[in-house]
Write a structure and sequence with these properties.
160 residues, Four Helix Bundle (Hemerythrin (Met), subunit A), 2% strand
Length: 160
């Protein structure tokens, strides 16, 4: 038995968690890169908004295609790594909220067949609509963890 309803409920809350979390962080440190070659708080937050349309499109393909094949999304390689720092944070948070609502509406209408559809992805041994939805939730929390790490971790404990 899958935990689809639980995953969807948590996907709904991610924009609220992120916005409430960011509210406590001083704006003056948002764009500071504390680890060489790693994203700032601002970039992690904006990234969550930027990837939503791509994730939505993948889920549409799971709904409309049998065994869809996907390409890897690699920031810094097939999308410029520098563009995130230039984005407006408030606009990005609003976009994240709007795009996430659209994504949740899509998957809330998935049939059992849609949930069972498997695809191919070069990065993963297995890939399905269910795995992607779970991956989206884990991706949200990975970046929120990285934001917290950039904010509150003492320098000597930051992973280099």
């Amino acid at each position: 038995m899958r935990d689809i309803d639980l995953l969807i409920a948590n996907l709904v809350t991610s924009p609220d968690i992120l916005e409430n979390f960011l509210h406590h962080i001083p704006r003056s440190i948002m764009k500071r890169r504390r680890i060489l070659g790693k994203w700032s708080i601002h970039e992690h937050a904006c990234h969550l908004a930027v990837v939503q349309p791509m994730l939505y499109d993948r889920l549409v393909r799971f709904k409309t295609e049998e065994c869809p094949e996907f390409k890897a999304y690699i920031p810094g390689k097939n999308v410029p790594d520098s563009m995130l720092i230039e984005l407006d944070l408030d606009e990005s948070l609003q976009k994240f909220r709007e795009e996430r609502k659209k994504l949740v509406e899509l998957i809330s209408d998935f049939s059992d067949t849609d949930w069972e559809n498997e695809g191919k992805h070069p990065e993963y041994k297995m890939y399905s609509s269910y795995i992607l939805v779970r991956h989206i939730l884990m991706h949200d929390h990975l970046h929120m963890y990285r934001i917290e790490e950039q904010w509150i971790t003492n320098d000597e404990y930051l992973r280099q």
